[in-house]
Amino acid sequence: MEIRIGNDIDKERILSVRPIAAPYFTGDYFLVALDGEGNILGYATVFLREIPAPVPAKEAFIHLIEILEEGNFGKGIGSLLVQKIIELEKEKDTYQVRAYCDIQNVGSHRLWWKNGFGISPVKNQDDSILGSFVTYVL
Fold first, then answer.
1. pTM: predicted TM-score of the whole model, two decimal places
2. For residue 123, what are the β-bridge partners?
3. 133, 98 contact by CB (below 8 A)
4. In a structure prediction context, what are the per-residue pLDDT tens digits for the chain, which is 138 residues long?
C-alpha cells in the first residue's frame, strides 16, 4: 500500500464516488491510500492553522478521514494515513495534530486511541458529551 499526498486527479476520483466530501477539500493538503493497482482505498484531508491561544505554534487539523469501502475497514488504512500526517508535520516543526470526533463514532475513537492521541470530551451545557477533540503533540 502507498500513502502519498493527493493531486487534482485523485480529488476528482474521490469526488466522483463521494461528492458530499467536496467541502472537506478546502484545506491545505490531502493524502490518499492506494492499493498495488492504484485504486484509492481511503483519504485524509488536512488544514493548517495557528493555535488559537497565546502561544506561537501551528497545528495540523485532520478535517476528514474516510475509508471508501466498508470491506476495507479495520485493515489499518486509517492508521497509515494518520501516521503519514504525523511524519509530514514533524518535518515542518508543527506543534500538534488534532481532529474532532463525534461521540457516536466508536471506530474513529479507537483509531485515535490506537495511534497515541489524547482524547478530550466536549460537553454540552447539560453535561451530555457531544464528541471529542483528539490531540497528538509532536
1. 0.93
2. 129
3. yes
4. 999 999 999 999 999 999 999 999 999 999 999 999 999 999 999 999 998 777 779 999 999 999 998 889 989 999 999 999 999 999 998 999 999 999 999 999 999 999 999 999 998 899 999 999 999 999
Mapping DSSP to helix (H, G, I), strand (E, B) and coil, where does residue 57 land?
coil
Strands (E), the chain: 2-5, 29-34, 40-50, 58-67, 96-102, 118-123, 129-137
Pairing of strands 29-34, 2-5: antiparallel
Nearest CA-CA partner of 60 in 102, 110, 99, 118: 99
Q: Are 96 and 138 spatial neighbours (Cβ–Cβ below 8 Å)?
A: yes
For the record, the C-alpha cell of 71 comes out as 470491506
Distance CA 33, CA 75 (A): 12
Q: Are 19 and 68 in contact (CB under 8 A)?
A: no
Q: How far apart are CA 119 and CA 116, in angstroms?
A: 9
For the beta carbon of residue 44, count every other beta carbon within 10 angstroms. Answer: 26
